[in-house]
Amino acid sequence: MNKRPIIIDCDTGHDDAIALLLALGSPEVELKAVTTTAGNNVVDKTFHNTLKVLSHIGVTDIPVAKGAESFFFQPHKIADHVHGDSGLDGPELAEPSFGGVKLSAVELIEKTVRESAEKITLCPMGPLTNIATFVLSCPDLLPKIERISFMGGSAVGGNASPVAEFNTWQDPEAAQIVLKSGVPITMCSLDATFDAYITAEEKERFRQIGNKAGILTAELLDFFGKFHAKVGNKGAPMHDACAVAAVINPALFEMKRANVSMDLNGTFTRGCTTTDITGVTGRKQNCDVTFGVDREAFVELLYSAVKNLQ
Ligand code: BDR
Ligand code: CA
What we know:
Strand order of the largest sheet: 3-2-1-4-5-6-11-9-10
Radius of gyration: 18 Å
CATH class: Alpha Beta
Shape: globular
Strand content: 15-25%
CATH topology: Inosine-uridine Nucleoside N-ribohydrolase, Chain A
Order of helices and strands: EHEHEHHEHEHHEHEHHEHEEEH
Number of strands: 11
CATH architecture: Alpha-Beta Complex
Structural class: alpha/beta
CATH superfamily: Ribonucleoside hydrolase-like
Bound molecules: beta-D-ribofuranose, calcium ion
Helix content: 25-40%
Distance between the termini: 21 Å
């Protein structure tokens, strides 16, 4: 099978960690590099969390780089109420057994894309600062990007404000640069990702796999699930894993073509992804937007991936 080369840009985070496991355990994709950004927590912590997760499952040969510590215009706000003080509370993970590369996130993306014989798919799952910086600094490499499959945005509703999703709300200017890049884009929006949840019963199936990755998944869900139960969500939504799942099997999602543009100036709506599926704005369609997910098939995909790992 021809594996699709991908780069994950993340702010690890519980659902980011599970997205990494999905990528590493799926034969359809090859994780070429991981870059990290400020988002759920400060970048020093999201970088460290990424190294800890990879080390825990014995993956120490993938280059990991530290990226943006701040955003284009807006101050950073961490989400410790969701992910805890460390940004990845819950599982007790040992210190990483390897370090990151001595390149910035953007340099690592540039190097990986430049050296690749095949086009690369980018899977961002945090604020889009690193990706926007890459878009601005390496326009010659954009034809080598197969697609950007990002977790972020929403057509209806939000989780950081009544209308804005956390990742696009953190760095709206970066999101706008990416949306205008001309690269094919899948927006794995809250409209579907809230339905890509794992129930308490399913969580126990992961634990019962008995390998490190399965137990880690269950322990991540123990912590993450508590927050989501408290706020009335159906289960623990695997927002970020959708960005990878949509690359592995786009048919899992109900997609609609749309123009997505950032609201940068609204008094109450800044960071919102205005999503035009009817063409009323006359703006060019730039995204495939997820509006639904086959939840059970998604959970099975994740289950098989986790089973394939240590
Ligand atoms: C996004 O916000 C973060 O807290 C999650 O990791 C995910 O990327 C969901 O809105
Ligand atoms: Ca994330």
